[in-house]
Design a protein that fits this description.
single chain, mainly beta, five-stranded antiparallel β-sheet
Length: about 80
């Protein structure tokens, strides 16, 4: 869940060309798991991933085994479910 920032049914536009910047929301895949959205924090050359919403928790990942599939550029509310 990404409440309260994003409602169920939100459509995300992801750019595969943009380089992630500190604080961006990215589509990231850890190991062989399903890709997920995370907020990225960049310290020098270290990427740190946190939940999009603090309500979900504050689990931080510093994994070195990840693939960033893209950067979220837009979130569109989908009111027709």
């Amino acid at each position: 869940s990404m409440l309260p920032l994003f409602e169920k049914g939100t459509i995300f536009v992801v750019s595969h060309e943009l380089l992630p910047q500190d604080g961006d929301i990215v589509l990231v895949q850890f190991y062989n798991h399903t890709p997920c959205f995370r907020k990225i924090f960049i310290e020098d050359e270290t990427y740190i991933f946190g939940p999009v919403s603090e309500i979900v928790g504050c689990e931080i990942s510093k994994s070195k085994n990840f693939i960033i599939h893209g950067v979220v550029t837009k979130a569109i509310q989908n009111f027709h479910e």
